[in-house]
Amino acid sequence: MKHCLAITVSLAALVSANTGLAQEAAEIAQEPAADAQESDEPEYDDDTIVVTSTRIRGQLIVDQPPIAEYDEEDIAAFGGGSIADIIEAIQPATSSGARGSRGGGRPVFLINGIRVSSWREFRSYPPESVAKIEVFPEEVAQRFGYSPDQRVVNIILKPNFQSVTAEVEYEQPSRGGYSYNEQELTYLRIGEKARVNFNAEVEDRSLLTEAERGLAIEGREDEAPFRSLVSDTWSGELTANYARAFMESGDSISLNATLNRDRSRSLSGLANDGLTPLERRSETDTISLGGTFNSAFGDWKANFISDAVFTDGETQIDRFDSSGFDIADSRTYSITNNATLTGYPIALPAGDVAVTLDAGLDWTRLESADTRSDTDLSLTRRRVDGGINLAVPIAERDGALGAIGDLSLNLSAGIDELSDFGVLTDWTAGATWRPFENLTLGATYFRREVAPSLTNLGSPRIDEFNVPVFDYASGATELVTLVTGGNPNLVAETQSDWKFSGNWRLPFWEDARLNLEYGINRSNDVTSTPGFSAAFEEAFPDRVTRDAGGDLLAIDRRPITLFETRSRILSIGFNARGQIGKAPERPERGAERDAQRGGAGARGGFDPARMDAMRKAFCGVPQGEIPDLSQIPEQFRARLLDDSGNPDPEKIAAARERFCGEGAEQRGERFAAMRTAICADPPQLDGLPETMLARLRNEDGEIDPERLKALRERMCSADGAQTEGQARRGGGRRGGMNPFSRGGGDEDKRPRYFFSVNFDRTLENDILLADGGPLFDQLAGDVLGGGAIAANSARLEGGLFWQGYGLRLSGRYTGKARLNGSGLPGSSDLFFDDLATLDLRLFADLGEVFDKDDGWLKGLRVSLKADNIFDARRRVVDEDGVVPDAYDPLRIDPTGRYLGIDVRKAF
């Protein structure tokens, strides 16, 4: 008769140990894992010990490993007030370095592994509600019906959570001049069947003028008080979110609504009468509605999304002749609908083929009007799209072709039919190879056609007067008019990219990953919004207006089409997290101490009363009915739910058989007896199965003391960790995550740290204006897009946290660069120094610091921030070493060192 210590899903283990202990016990046992949730669950003989390891509900199972992972202690350590703050803090991991301009904007977001209608749905959730965050490479986006140009962030929420948070923030530069304040109130409740969220937020920032920074343009010094460096802005927003799961059918829905109003006011100097200030006033109202529906169609998982946004904006622009003002109106209507189906219909020797089918129907309309134009402009786009993605396993470690490791192919194809651009296509092909458990290599080719946005095509014209611009032809700073808006003559872009990547989980550093990416990007007919440079004027002379004497008057910055762009980027990322110092020694749990605590196994977490309550929950209802899952510990309850968070009948039936079937009580008793034998002092090894003893023996056949010690630590030290650990981590009905609790027992009080850095090296950045030339090397200074382009850039985030105190550092680096002049007499090249800035955030959870579990100090956090603590600014000089007025450091960055205080209370 066989005796083994196996790693599988078992009810006995779920009440006997928490998840982390089960995973560690699995490593000691060195047995392969099996999943008892499947219908073909293996049978064990009477002497089998079954230990469990659970996966957090909502985690992704994909071929590509995560680039970075953050558990709830890490998330608490960031010191953020919302999920939006956390996403900003982990930006080095979420940015798509090797994709260059392809990977701009926010990443793709999932909640518990499921698509959501929009960022609005969850951005205001408090970080205490999050159990884990996973960051995956761009290729994973295709598994959910997205294009592979942004990374994927999967946010896993706690199943039972409730909180009300209020936050007040005040900030201003150390030099003064303007200030910013924000107030936010958030309610969130996550229950068994539903989650509800309400959020109200107000932001206000005051005006900053050139005069308040001591700036002026030669000959126009009297205009300094009437030219703004920072606009006066105000924003108010109300958000409501609701999600519900229907236990009977397994379906789920979510709904969200947002109302937003933005106002701004900026100054552009004086009118031509020299007396009237020129203002530009903008007001924008936005209404957003979204919803999702998740269901199952046989073996396929379905996700339906609809999102509608209406934006109404008006800009009033004072006329330069002081005769009044012009009005530029813009209204945008958009409705996005998408459906995805995911299934595993084909079985191969190395695993099942994952198939994702997606289809969409979008409608967008842009209406713009301008009092300077005789006709209004309206553009409408209807888009119908469809696509398929296949994740094909070729080889599986310890399975088919296992000698080469894990190997899979990722193939996708899509088609878009646009009412204004016709049919556009895209396709990708890639391979992911994991030759070793801790090393993953990938190569992917992307090709797609992209239409310009309606904003680029049809935005109303807006003129901004008296903008200081450095004239490369004369070497002087001139006050010119900048023209922005849309260009209806843009064409579709064709993108052709390669990406090569490597992800290495360091064997000598726990929870540390090194990520390497190399991207080759090629595009034709590229839509670009230009700046102003000598290269731009050479390429598009009709976009620059000069008077008869050659003085610069106006620049047209509306979008243009570039014939071809080429770039190559190398990106290196490193992410690490953990604790500092050696883990505290845990005392042995002997039989005498166990007896003092209520009998054998009490110290190890085997609770007969809890086991009995679980048996009653399962066995007290007729077979086939859903038991009351509120009586089940959360770690186990999560194993009984499907990917949508609903009870899975098959998993519940298997669990019921474990608890109520023949021999259930005997198995629990045997497990308790073996735990007693292991945890006795000294251990009673004669009471252990032979197979278990074999795991503890060394090559000489003797019991290895280190293996025995490790096994005792893991099996005898749970100490009710499941229940107490949830309370410490905010898993109960109330909010308040406290990873630095000073409670008694064997708690690990070591300082925690995290560190994330991303370095990008641009190896090539060229623009070709026509077939055969001319070619503009932007790294060498021939820049068309505005501003110098540095070859090197980096960003880092790091922090250290201990017993309620936190410190976080954020750094940015931009390398040296240059902008070439025209080469004509009087012209000059410009040289940009490199720039490094460092931001500091200090915070203290006062309830933890003063060891208060109730009263006003509980859940109260005070944060201090200092951005750009060394007040660094980029220095720009011409060939003579002189700083042009347009590039005065205070004009480039009028804010500099930025100080703030934030007070947050969680109720």
Automatic annotation (TrEMBL):
Arranged from A to Z, the UniProt key words for this protein are: Cell outer membrane, Membrane, Signal
Write out the annotated subcellular location. Answer: Cell outer membrane
Q: What is its main location?
A: membrane
**Which InterPro entries does this entry report, sorted A to Z?**
Beta-barrel_TonB_sf (IPR036942), Plug_dom_sf (IPR037066)
Region spans: Disordered: 580-607, 718-747
Stated name of the protein: TonB-denpendent receptor
Q: What does UniProt give as the signal peptide span?
A: 1-22
